[in-house]
Design goal:
- The protein is 34% helix and 27% strand.
- The protein has one domain: FAD/NAD(P)-binding domain (3-Layer(bba) Sandwich), CATH 3.50.50.60.
- It has 389 residues and is α+β, with helices and mostly antiparallel strands.
- The radius of gyration is 21 Å and the shape is globular.
- Helix 1 packs parallel to helix 3, helix 1 runs parallel beside helix 8 and helix 8 packs antiparallel against helix 9.
- Bound molecules: flavin-adenine dinucleotide.
- Keywords: Membrane, Transmembrane, Transmembrane helix.
- InterPro entries: FAD-bd (IPR002938), FAD/NAD-bd_sf (IPR036188), Geranylgeranyl_reductase (IPR050407).
- GO terms for molecular function: FAD binding.
- Pfam families: FAD_binding_3.
Amino acid sequence: MQVGIFYTKPYLPRVKCDYEIIVIGGGLAGLTAAIHLVLEGRSVLVIEKNEYPNHKVCGEYVSNEVVPYLKRLDVGLQEKGAVSIQELQFSTVRGVSVKSKLPLGGVGISRYAFDHHLFQRAQQVGVHFLIGQVNNVLFKDSYFEVNTSLNETITSIFTIGAYGKRSVLDKALDRSFIQNKSSWMAVKNHYHLEDFPEHLVGLHNFEGGYGGLSKTENGAVNFCYLASYDSFQKAGNIENYNQQVVSKNPFLGNFLKEAQPVFDQPLTIAQISFEPKQAVENHIIMCGDTAGLIHPLCGNGMAMAIHSAKIASELLVDFFSGSTMTREQLEKNYIRKWKKAFQKRIWWGRQLQKILLKPKLSNILLKAVGKTPGLLNFMVKCTHGKPIS
Ligand SMILES: Cc1cc2nc3c(=O)[nH]c(=O)nc-3n(C[C@H](O)[C@H](O)[C@H](O)COP(=O)(O)OP(=O)(O)OC[C@H]3O[C@@H](n4cnc5c(N)ncnc54)[C@H](O)[C@@H]3O)c2cc1C
């Protein structure tokens, strides 16, 4: 179902569009932006290629920094059973470990539950949905034409790109990072393990990668890891890799021995790129991973996705509520605010990942953290933001 609107900003041509805003991708960033915008009176269509609910490859640790903002949108995570996490355990390839209280803490909730909760809230407030893949977006001077796999062309005044790390759309838009092959892949499964502590998130190193362990709302423990292709290729498949490489870290070895997998097959994703991206491209306002991906060890990608959706939504609300801001000014403001909020965190994440993947350096880091517990707090603070509401 579409709505017709007649748009009359003085310095833009008069254009009849189907929606004020089309959001491409209904993950965390896209759904958050859609809810925020509709609550402020805007007409929004989300185009998502997959049916809800579904599982996603993710560490499933959400930083508390976005919890107050989600509450403001009436998206409570505790009410869905999210578990409170206050402690981090970090271990080296050989299983030497250190624990530290997390300065801000977070919650454990599966993406299956989290994304579905947002989807239901979005439907409740009146966001329109189309299940299909966006194949291309054309900017026509003052409005967008969005082409979908259902052979539909839908028009909007603004378009938010919230389609995640990598998509056919990146090729269609000829984004520069898509030209380069990435050397990272990720694997995830849920497990049953009775006595896994609820309040703890584990970050465990192994040769060529690292993995996170934490509990989710339904009692399952999520184990999700990032691995380099080089290290994975030698093992040939996930089972061998888990046995020959991942399990060399005694924490992970014991976990994989004792825990029972929930999914028949683990979920995997490939070609994970950490290369810089543009926050606005072809006039599309990029949110979440579409604008830039922080290294997963930081446990902050979801919070960044939600925060970037808030920044974009606030500017769009401002634009439609009579401000004199032009499209160009809105885009410039978004880029500036995005950089201010996230550029430093991404830089820190890159440095920490370099250290973590070098066994000698990560040993030194672990010893330093053991002697100076405040160091871990400092590192967490460098890769996280302050609570937003
Ligand atoms: C291994 C790993 C572990 C991680 N662990 C954590 C963690 O513990 N904590 C944390 O905070 N972050 C973590 N992250 C990061 C986090 O998963 C992402 O930052 C977050 O999912 C970004 O949300 P998003 O909305 O930008 O993208 P997504 O959640 O990926 O949503 C994008 C949506 O767009 C849809 N889509 C794609 N292309 C199209 C198209 N052409 N048309 C229509 N729809 C489309 C997809 O189906 C998807 O639903 C991890 C990342 C990795 C790789």
